[in-house]
Amino acid sequence: MGDTPGHPHRTDAPSFAAASPTPSPVDHLLAATPLFARVFRHSPVGMVIVAPDGRIAAANDAFGQVLDQPPAALIGRTTLNLGLLHAGNELPFAPRPDDPHADVPLRLRDGDGRIRHFIASVQPLTIGSEPYAVSYIQDVSELNRLSHALAQSEERFRLFFENAPLALVVSDAATGQIVDVNTTACRQYGYSRADFLTAPAEQLAPLVAAKPGVAQHTTATGHLLDVETTPFFFDLADRSLQMNALLDVTEQTTTTRALRDSEERFRIVAQVSNDGLWDRDLSSDCLWCNNGRRLYGQFPYDPAHPWAARIHPDDLQQGIADFVHALEARQPGWTSEYRVLRSDGSWANVLQRGFILYDGEQPVRALGATVDITAPLQLAEAEAQAVAAERQRLARDLHDSVTQSLYSVSLLAEAARRHALEGQEPAAAEFIGRLGSLAHQALRQMRLLVYELRPAVLDTEGLAGALRHRLEAVERRAGIQVNLVIRGERTIPTLLQGEIYRVAHEALNNALTHAAATAITVRLDTLGNPMLLEVIDNGRGFNSSAPSLGRGLPTMRRRSEQLGGDLAIHSTTRGTTVRLSLPLLAA
Predict the structure, then answer these.
(1) For residue 355, what are the CA distances in angstroms to 351, 367, 369, 385?
(2) Torsion of CA 544, 547, 549, 554, to 10 degrees
(3) DSSP 6
(4) CA within 20 to 30 Å of 562's CA: 46, 85, 438, 543, which one?
(5) What's the CA angle centered on 556, arms 514 and 552, to 5 degrees?
(6) From the first residue on, what is the mean pLDDT of each consecutive set of 10 residues in the chain (587 residues)?
(7) 0.90 exceeded by pTM
C-alpha cells in the first residue's frame, strides 16, 4: 500500500519506521521480532535506534513527542542537525567503556525551543554485522525541579533551625541520643555542639523528655532554668526523631511567684466576700476600697464623707465597739451588722466582716468585706408572710371545701335515716349513694390538703420526683389512673423547679376537684429547648375564656408570665390539656 497524504508513515508498518521503498535492516529486524517491535513502539520511554553513521534509523512515538515531531520525520537525521544538545552534541552511540550501565545526562530542545533534561542509557545492538545501538531517554526535568526545590527547602529549614530564638534539640526517639542542636540551645545551656552530640543520653535526658510542660533544667554551670518544653515528632530517612522546642520561662515564673505573694491580701478578702472590699492602713488611716463594685454602686464611697457618717446613728456606737473590742482582745477578725444610708435616702442592711493584720503585737492593717444583706432579709420576711398566707389559704380551703362537704354528709345521713325509718327504701338508698359520693369527694379534698401540709420533696428528689410523689400520694390513692412520662435529663435550677411544680400542682388540683377526672397524664420534657410540661386529664372540660374561673388558672398564667414562658390551655367535653412551654438557659 502507498503513503497517504499528510501521513508519511506506511499503513502496514509501525509509525517509527520511515516510508521507504526498500526496507532497511532495522525494518527487517522489527518485522522479524514482533514482540520487540511492540515494546519499542508502545514504550512510554523514548527509544531510538542509531545506525553506525550516527543517523537515526528508527524512533518510537515517545521520542517523537519529546521533540514535538512525528517519528518518521526523524529517520536519517542526526542529533546535531535536530538541534539536540548534550556534552558531545550527539546521542550516546556506545556504552561507556568504564561503566557500561552508567546513565548519561542529556539536554534536548523541544519544539517550543525549551531545553529539557533527560538521562540516556545505551545498549549495543548488532544487525547483521553492523554495530547499531539502542538509546533510551527519560525526562528528568520535573525530577530536577523537585530536587532543586527540596534543596531550597532544606536550606530554608537549616536557616530557621540555626537562627530560631528558641532552643531546638533534635534527638533519636528510640535511644534519646541528641543528634543536632541549634545555636540558641548552645547559648542557653552553655554546652558546645560537640558536647551535646557526645554526651551520654542520660546526662541530658531532661532536654529530650517527650512530656510537654514546664520543668527545671540544669545548665553546664549548674544554674537552674524553668523551661517550657514542646515536643515534635517526625521521621527522616527511616529514622524516628524528636525535636524539642525549649523556651526559658525562668523570668516569667519568678515574676509570677512574686505577684502571687504580693496579692495575698486579695486572696484573703476574696475568701470572705465578693461585694464591697476594703483595706485600711491603721498607722496612716488611709482607706482603699473597690469603687465600682456592686455595694459601692449603691452606696458611693466619697472620701469627703467618711463611711462612718453613712451608718445609722443607732448602729454607729455598736459598730465601733465591735472593732475596738477585736483590737483590744488581739482577735484575728470581727463581724458587725448595721444599717447604711443609700444615695436615694433609704436604709440598707449590711454585714461587715474584717481581718486584722499584726506586726508582732501592733495592729497595722484591717481589711475585709461589706456585704449588702437587704435582699436576703427582705426575702426572709417575704417567705414568712408567704407561709402565713399559705396557712390562711389552707384554713380557708378546709372551711370552704371539707367543712361544707362534711356538713352536707351529715344532712344526707340524717335524710337517709328518716327515709329508712319510714320504710322508704328507694329514697333511703338514693341518699346513701349520694352520701358515699360526697364522702369520697371530701376524702380527696382532705388528702390534697394533707399533702400540701407535708414538707416539699423538691429539694430531695427534684422536679420529676416531686411530680411522681404527688401523683402517688394524692391522685392514685383517690382512685385515679395516673401516668408520668419523663423525657430528658436536663438540670433545671432549683428555684425554677419550684415554680414549674406549682403550675403542675394547680393543674392537678383543678383536674382532681373540678373535672371529676378518672385518668391523668403528666409529661415533662427537658430534652429540647424550650422545655415542656403537660397535664392532661379526661374529665369534664370548661370554657377557658370565661371571665370567672376561680384562682387556679389565673395563678398559673401569672406564674408562666413571670417565668417568661407560654401557657396554653385546651379544654373540651372529653378532657383538658394544660401545656407550659418554658425557655431554658443553655447549660
Answers:
(1) 14, 5, 9, 37
(2) 80
(3) T
(4) 543
(5) 30
(6) 36 42 81 87 86 86 82 80 52 55 69 73 84 82 73 75 86 90 91 90 86 90 91 86 90 79 62 63 76 46 59 84 87 84 80 85 83 69 63 63 66 74 77 72 64 58 84 79 88 80 85 82 90 91 64 78 88 90 72
(7) no
